[in-house]
Amino acid sequence: QVQLVESGGGLVQAGGSLRLSCATSGPGRTFSLATMGWFRQTPGKEREFVATISWSGGSTYYADSVKGRFTISRDNAKNTVYLQMNSLKPEDTAVYYCAAGRRVGISPDLNDYDYWGQGTQVTVSS
User: Fold this and answer.
1) How far apart are CA 42 and CA 23, in angstroms?
2) Which of 92, 104, 112, 105 is nearest to 10 (CA)?
3) What average pLDDT does the segment 24-47 reach?
4) How far is Cα 29 from Cα 41, in angstroms, rounded to an integer?
5) Is 49 within 8 Å of 105 (Cβ atoms)?
C-alpha cells in the first residue's frame, strides 16, 4: 500500500512562511521513481496544481501563482517531499495535498498522479 502523509500546515499571517512535509511509503522501486507534486483546493473549487518535482530533484515546475514564492524539494533518503512557502498571501489559503505518480518526470496535471495524501490545512490571514 502506498501512503502519503502531509504535515506542517497551520495558521500564518500574510507575508509569513510555512514548510509542508509529505512523508511517503510504498512497495517496490516504482514509487521511488515517481514524480511528486503538490496541489491545493478550497471549498467549492477544483483542485489546482501548485508544484511538481522529478525523482532526482533536477526538474521542477510551478504554477504562475506561486512562482518565486514556493519551493518544492525532496529528500529521497528520508522518503520525504517538501513545499517551502514564503511570502504567503490570503489567496494561498487552501487544503494542500501531496501526490505521487508512477512515472519519471514532472507534471502539472492531477490526472497523472496515482496516489494522494489526506491533505493539510493552510490558512493565511490578512
Assistant:
1) 23
2) 92
3) 82
4) 30
5) no
- DSSP reduced 3-state for 111: helix
Residue keyed to cell 506542517: 8
Which amino acid does the sequence have at 76? N
**Residue for cell digits 493552510?**
122
pLDDT, tens digit (0-9, with 9 covering 90-100), for 47-67: 999 999 998 888 999 999 999
The percentage of residues in the chain with a pLDDT greater than 70, rounded to a whole number, is 94
Report the b/e string of 9-26 with b at 16+ CB within 10 A. Answer: beebeeeeebebbbebeb
Any bridge partners for residue 7, and if so which? 21
Cell of 28: 517496490
User: Which residue reads 490578512 in cell numbers?
Assistant: 126
The β-bridge partners of 40 are 48, 96
φ, ψ dihedrals at 38, nearest 5°? -120, 135
What value does the mean pLDDT take over residues 21-48?
Answer: 84
Beta bridge partners of 49: 39
Residue 29: predicted pLDDT: 57
* Cα–Cα distance, 92 to 94 (Å, whole number): 6
